[in-house]
Design goal:
By secondary structure, the protein is mainly alpha-helical. It contains 6 helices and no strands. Bound molecules: phosphoribosyl ATP. It catalyses: 1-(5-phospho-beta-D-ribosyl)-ATP + H2O = 1-(5-phospho-beta-D-ribosyl)-5'-AMP + diphosphate + H(+).
């Protein structure tokens, strides 16, 4: 795997482009212009909140299992490829959930940007100190 692949704005634009496709599918589904039999994205939207959120749980579990298998097979290339595929499924289904709840990947990226440079340990301690936990 190439560690330098897709760093920087290419990642943002790839996610934004896919989110545009997902949002368009959602609008088309709501308008009755797209058939869940021909669009997997529309099929997911037809399942509503519970179906979409359940799918995230399933995809997360599949990604965890692929990671464990990858480790056991000493990171064999084909297992790494499977792990990337499962992570892609997970990210895709997260984009579906964001769209369902009126959000965009840009919102998540902005939050991650905001956190840059703040240690998770410090942030957790600050939350405890202000009683937010
Ligand atoms: N990126 C994706 C994408 N990633 C994963 N998937 C689908 O997500 C599913 C993964 O779920 P599973 O592994 O559980 O497989 P499954 O057995 O088919 O699912 P279930 O029957 O268990 O629900 C597969 O059917 C994949 O095809 C995706 N489907 C669509 N996209 C993008 O969305 C666009 C629009 O897709 P359609 O709405 O189908 O035209 C496509 O052009 C792609 O760019």
């Amino acid at each position: 795997m190439n560690n330098s692949a897709k760093s920087g704005s290419g990642l943002d634009s790839a996610l934004a482009h896919l989110a545009d496709v997902v949002d368009q599918r959602r609008e088309a589904f709501k308008a009755g212009q797209i058939d869940p039999k021909t669009s997997y994205t529309a099929l997911l939207f037809s399942k509503g909140d519970d179906g979409i959120l359940k799918k995230i749980g399933e995809e997360a579990t599949e990604a965890v299992m692929a990671a464990k298998d990858s480790r056991q097979s000493q990171l064999a290339a084909e297992q790494q490829k499977r792990l990337v595929g499962e992570m892609a499924d997970l990210w895709f289904h997260c984009l579906i959930a964001l769209s369902q709840f009126g959000l965009r990947p840009e919102d998540v990226i902005a939050e991650l940007d905001r956190r840059l440079g703040t240690s998770g340990i410090e942030e957790k301690a600050a939350r405890k100190a202000t009683g937010q936990e």
